[in-house]
Amino acid sequence: MNPDLSWVLNDVLQVRGARHAILVSADGLLLEHSSAIGRDDAETVAAAMSSMQSLSRAVAPFIGSGTTGRWRQTLLEYEDGWIFLIAAGSGAYLAAAASADVDMESMSFRMQQQVGALGKAMTSPPRQNAGSDI
User: Fold this and answer.
1) Which of 49, 63, 100, 119 could form a disulfide with 95 if both were Cys (CB 3.0 to 4.6 A apart)?
2) pLDDT tens digits along 90-129
3) What residues does 115 pair with on adjacent strands?
């Protein structure tokens, strides 16, 4: 059963200037995409975002902090906008595209909020009674 995760993307897209959002597995598979981007395009972007997070983690020592640092977010700037990429739990990433005039702080904050909500939604507590009468 694949849960409907569109609510995560829909909320991210409420930020003025947000265009598209996708949820990606660590191995590059598309888990969910917003309606404004076609599935084929979303799958291509999902594979690229998986590679981007891997690359971002690999260059973490370049920040020169004396440690490898922990990757939190990747921002890509283009002439017409931004791409935001953040971890969305174990083995998943949330990526969003936005216009050049997006409030970057609002976008990052909204994405972090949704990742927190997603983590809670995807975590189920251990069952107290597994169906046995013992």
Assistant:
1) 49
2) 788 999 999 999 999 999 999 999 888 877 665 444 445 5
3) none
